Each structure stands twice: as structure tokens, then as C-alpha cells.
Automatic annotation (TrEMBL):
Top class in the EC scheme: lyase
Keywords noted in UniProt: Decarboxylase, Lyase, Purine metabolism
SUPFAM superfamilies: UraD-Like
Protein name: 2-oxo-4-hydroxy-4-carboxy-5-ureidoimidazoline decarboxylase
Encoding gene per record: uraD
The keyword Translocase is assigned to this record: no
Keyword presence, DNA repair: no
Length: 174
């Protein structure tokens, strides 16, 4: 067991929950993750995180989505989104593929984000790490044609991917 995993396991309940909420902003998910401590290894923690997201009701997913800014939002907009400094920093790093995007691509991302939000009622969520703005825009275009049920499953999978990445960051593994 890593010292960072031991650190997480030794935190008081409220502090452990606060730390995990920076990985996934669903209170139900964070409470369950804290209640199931200790985790014997990083892989066990990651598997529990994914399983916990699969078990969430849709309102819990929406709670988590509320902590995610739009893809392509500039740093100022992310900071004003009401999320922690750590989450804002992680989001900025994760969306670094948009940092060099042209104004035209960013404008198209904004327009498609709005269309997506109007269609599905929540922010477009994608694991942005390692993706260019063009790749994210193409995926946004594609997903606008999903059914509501298919899109919910896609969002749940993307949230799980993002959560695992953030857990790894929290533990200093990335």
C-alpha cells in the first residue's frame, strides 16, 4: 500500500470526503468511497470508484456534472464556476488541448456545447486529457445524435474515466 493511499485511509471522515469530492463531486459517491476504506491498493480504489459511479442514480451524476465547466471555457470562466482551486487546476490541465485551438474552433465548441446542453440538460462531459480541441469537437458533434439513454451511459463512462484520472492525481500517481 502506498503512503498516499495510507494518507487517504487515515483522514477523518469529513476530510477524506472533501478530498474525494475533488475527484467526483457526487456526495453519495464520496460518502460511499469513504465508508469502504481502507483500500488495499490503488487498483482496488480505482475499481471501487468506477463501481460506485455505475451505482449512482442520475441526480447524483447531475450533481457531479455541475462541477465540470464547459469544454473550451477559458481559465477565468473555470475559476468562476464555483469549484475548488484544485478542481479548476485539474480541469485546466485536462483541457489543455483547447489552449492552442483557433478562435473558430473555440467558437464552434461554445455553440455545440450550448446545443448539447439544450438537448440533454447538462454540460457535455468528456475525458479531455490527451485530446485535441478538434477531437473533442468531433466527439461533441457525434454525441449530439445519441439518444438520451445512450448519452447517459456515455456520460457515466466518461465520468468514471475522469474520476480515475483524478484519483491518480490525488494520490500523486500522475
Amino acid at each position: 500500500m502506498s503512503s498516499r493511499l495510507e494518507w487517504l485511509g487515515s483522514l477523518p471522515l469529513e476530510e477524506a470526503e472533501a478530498q474525494l469530492l475533488t475527484c467526483c463531486a457526487s456526495r453519495r459517491w464520496a460518502r460511499k468511497m469513504v465508508a469502504n476504506r481502507p483500500y488495499l491498493g490503488e487498483l482496488g480504489l480505482e475499481e471501487a470508484a468506477v463501481a460506485g459511479i455505475r451505482e449512482l442514480e442520475w441526480p447524483d451524476i447531475e450533481e457531479a456534472l455541475a462541477a465540470h465547466p464547459r469544454i473550451g471555457d477559458r481559465a477565468e470562466a473555470v475559476r468562476s464556476h464555483g469549484i475548488s482551486q484544485r478542481e479548476a487546476q485539474w480541469s485546466s490541465q485536462e483541457q489543455s488541448g483547447t489552449a492552442t485551438a483557433s478562435v473558430e474552433v473555440l467558437d464552434e465548441l461554445t455553440a455545440r456545447n450550448i446545443a448539447y446542453e439544450n438537448r440533454f440538460g447538462h454540460v457535455f462531459l468528456i475525458r479531455a486529457t490527451g485530446r485535441s480541441a478538434g477531437e473533442m469537437l468531433a466527439e461533441l458533434h457525434r454525441r449530439l445524435h445519441n439518444s438520451a439513454a445512450d448519452e447517459r451511459e456515455t456520460v457515466r463512462a466518461e465520468l468514471a474515466d475522469i474520476t480515475v484520472l483524478r484519483i491518480r492525481k490525488l494520490l500523486g500517481l500522475l
